[in-house]
Amino acid sequence: MEKLNYLRAGSIHLINLTLAVLIITISLTYPASAQNDVVIPQIPKNANFYETVDSYNKFFDQLPADKKSGWKQFKRWEWLWQQRVEPNGDYPDMINIYRGIKNYMDKQNFNESMLAYDWTNIGPFSDPPMGGYKSSGLGRVNIVRINPANPQQIWAGTAGGGVWVSDDQCDTWRNLPFTSFLSLGVSDIAISANNENLVFVATGDADGSQSGMAPNSIGLIKSTDGGNTWKITGLSYYLNENKVLSKVIIHPDDDNTIFVSGWNGVYKTIDGGDTWEQVLNKSSLSDMEMHPENPDILYASTRTWGTNAIYATYDGGENWETVHTIGSTARIALSTTLSNPDAIFALAASRSRNFHSIWKSEDTGENWDAIGTYQDTPNILGYNNGGDSADRENTILHLL
């Protein structure tokens, strides 16, 4: 019953979370001076689909053709929900859908004779037509992980299609049950180095959280049988809580100790996910890394519109400190390397969603040096191939 109530609450408020994210996207698109001239639509919590569409259409109609940032994301949202709402514009009650599926699966004697036959997939098999970034069928893969205990097995987490697994190094793929039931967004996947069947998945599309699509986060989910079945851990959320997880890390020597970062800080469990303690109370954490040789050292970075920070702990999460900040940025991504375990790299994106800078510390975050900035480096994060320079390859080699 607890699970059913959880799904009911999540489905009721999914639309509000989606629109809240879309409003954030629109507001971040305009500088402060321009926002005074733009009226952000106020959508009542109980507005149905058609009322919401009408409000957003009126909002975009007031904007010049070249200032309709957010329109594409809105149309994605509209397309997603127009196929799912009731005729009167109400949103579907996921609880009834869940009960229907459960009742159907419980009736295993519905036609046992049919199970004896071999079934063949007859299609459709064709891929959607491709012709640029506006083509239908384009999706996004947020994370790819190799099973450390089974290198033949590759795991992939998608922006809105759950978790996929290949057992033959990407020749064939299968979608795992439950993760596709609610079209879960997946930000990260962690597989135990000691038990190939132990997997944790951070739900919620953190990389696309500023798009118009819903993050679809229900917290951290866990599988102890290689993805065949899943359970929601003690770190769980209702969809209307507007929470997204960004990274999950399993302690290399203790499978019961797990760290998770997200929009509301860093959490730690020492009992395999049943209970959690918030060890870092900071918002908008977009990335987290563990020292390659010392699991007591972890780093976390933020994703905010302004000055972003890097935090570090040297005692397994008990205490954290700010070790570096980068102004005029939108996000910081982190990376470590086995070849230099005490090194930590930070890649910062600018508020215009372009390259800002790359920083490096060789003493676990105590001192930092800029090894490339937007002032002396081409925009290697730009849309164009090679950014703003044709000499992209040499630029990257120089930074490394």
Note down, in words, how this protein is organized.
With 400 residues, this protein is α+β, with helices and mostly antiparallel strands. The chain contains six helices and 19 strands. The protein has helices at 2-29, 32-35, 49-61, 71-82, 94-106, 392-399; strands spanning 141-146, 154-158, 163-166, 174-175, 186-191, 199-203, 219-223, 231-236, 245-251, 254-262, 265-269, 277-280, 285-290, 298-302, 306-313, 321-336, 344-350, 355-361, 369-373. The strands form four sheets. The chain has a seven-stranded antiparallel beta sheet, with no helix packed on it. A hairpin with a 7-residue loop joins strand 16 and strand 17. Helix 1 crosses helix 5 and helix 3 (49-61) packs antiparallel against helix 4. It is globular, with a radius of gyration of 23 Å. Residues 1-38 and 389-400 have low confidence and may be disordered.
How would you briefly describe this protein structure?
By secondary structure, this protein is α+β, with helices and mostly antiparallel strands. 20% of the residues lie in helices and 30% in strands.
